[in-house]
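Dear support,

I submitted the protein below through the web form. The confirmation email said the job was done, but the results page showed an empty box. After a refresh the structure appeared. I'm attaching both so you can tell me whether what I see now is the final result or a partial one.
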Amino acid sequence: MRPLTYKLAYCFILLVGYATANANSATQVIDHSLEVSLFPEEQTLRVRDRIHLPDDGPLEFTLHTGLDPHIITPGASLTQTGLSVYKTILQNYHVTLPEGVRDFTLEYGGKIAHKFQSRKESPGRDQKLLSGTISSEGVFLDAGVAWYPFFPGTHQTFSLTVEVPAKWQVVSQGTGPIETTHDGKRKISWRETNPQDDIYLIASPFHYFARTDKPVHSQVYLRQPDKALAERYLAATEDYLELYQELIGPYPYSKFALVENFWETGYGMPSFTLLGSRVIRLPFILHTSYPHEILHNWWGNGVYVDYPSGNWSEGLTAYLADHLLKEQQGKGIEYRRSALQRFADFVRSENDFPLIEFRSRHSTASQSVGYDKSLMLFHMLRRKLGEQNFIAGLRHFYREHLFRPAGFTDLQHAFEKASGEDLGRFFRQWTQRTSAPALEVRDLDIVSLEDGYRLSGTLLQSQRCAPFDLDVPIVVYPEQGNQPVKLNIPMDSRAKPFAVDLSFKPLRIDIDPWFDLFRQLHSQEAPATLSKLFGADKILFVLPADAPKTQLYGYRQLAANWSKGYQEASIILDKELSSLPEQTPVWLLGWENHLLEDFLSKRDSSQIELRNDRLQVAGQPLNRLTDSLVMVDRDKTDGRVIAVIASNNPQALPGLTRKVPHYGKYSYLVFTGETPDNQLKGQWAVTESPLRRYLTEERPPMEALRPEPLWPSPAGTDAKRPQD
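What the results page shows now:
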């Protein structure tokens, strides 16, 4: 399945040779008046398109090869100029118009029926791009198959009227649906007056639900008449629209629609999202991926991305959707730690690249750069500027660039305008450099003063590359009865001595305790998680020789499937080893595995018990007959990670093969049944860190400080909200 929140527009830009205009120049706008008849059973359509060009607009366009266009404007002519780079699908044309004429009409029709095809996004990067289709199940058409005359380098406004079979609905951008019946034929219309980088035509026998009592309409299109599900999405839509309009500015469209697709997808288009049937019924999607898709109508489908200068949209959307919602739940620290851990697990020097080169995710490494590093950039910017200036910068950026392409430089200028600060060095460092700083603290010392104490020490950057310019947050915890002290130490060199005078005796110092900096994690700062195994270059799978044949076959299939994701992978039986090999990360498969006891004696966590029929994970009992266990821990002798997958149900193994890679941030998982269904998940507790230093022999309990969220949730809070 394609990843959620994938930005389709970029792929289509590549597919049809579209080059985004420079962020500082105006993009020409073409207006289309499209009248369409759909014939799903025949997989065909007929179109009449009245096109208006600007005075100096282009005369070359691209259209699907099977649509056979002819021009009906007097004095105008149409010439084929050759096949496009994707010559099996797209044909280039040149239109010749009489002097002074900027309007012409095309009529065309034919069959469009494509499946997924693998094409090269750029050398060395495979990217599956969807080709549009018309079928009895549904219709998906966009610029990827040039179902309408596509003029490279332009934006589009349009009116769209589609004749469809009875009980079918049509979804596109803009205002609608407006339904009419003429000569017994059902027609549905949409109108979009804001410049768009694509025109979408989605159709299917949907069941339509809507709330129209507010200026922005909430809509749901389902393939089954599930009113309860529709109501949940309609209510969530209203909540998230309220949240983001108050935070950023007015929603740029007249509606937002959830559309259930006829294959499993997670696409975000202007004013609607196209999700698969299984996806929309996952209970967590409503409050995770769904708000992310809504927010893309401000970032990506509102302010467009100037792709040649880097895709900022995914990181900013992740920060203000996924991260913000976790922050509102008091889990922002954990979210940022997970983001840093993904970067550590999947990004190496050979696959790292600067943010200005991020276009779209095509691997876990590219996702870690384009999403995780990018969201940390915005978090550091928020800390640097303060809440008020950060929000003011967001609002300024949105107002100035709505329906225009923008890049990191435009973001920089917006935040400079809001704050009055020069942010050139900040943006150059985090968008043009690779790697990440690694922090250490040394030479801590406490000196008694007449009226208190002086705490001193040295911050170090230990990474191999040049030092970064950082603002390092520090929290000093006192004796009981005093408030912790929060410090911010500017650092632009390898070593930075610091000293602070305190009115109390310090008991503990924490360096970057809330994971506010984009940096390398120490292994002790984060729990062992499955992503560490999936991000390894080299792996060893150890199968249980004594397992029943069907079970051993299932384990072997799982290992063979996962081994494709590693540079070097070996699959062996446990009887070939007398003990666990050193250094190499290992997957141990099966309760019968002879090396399981060896692993249990070396594991770092005490939160699991698997001996002598006593099975507990994080205090929860485990039934070996019905439950499947997945867990990972560090070898306390050398720090490498070892994971266990054990199940007595061979029918569960194919499901585990598919599902477990999606749970990379967890330390342990328990599944039940043949499907299998997840019943328990979590991370091992982290209690120590090289960046947490106790300053006395005593270690009294201390209630950790936690920062406030950037923005309160839509309801249930009276917190003061920043103003422009």
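Response: this is the final, complete result; the empty box was a page-load delay. The radius of gyration is 29 Å.
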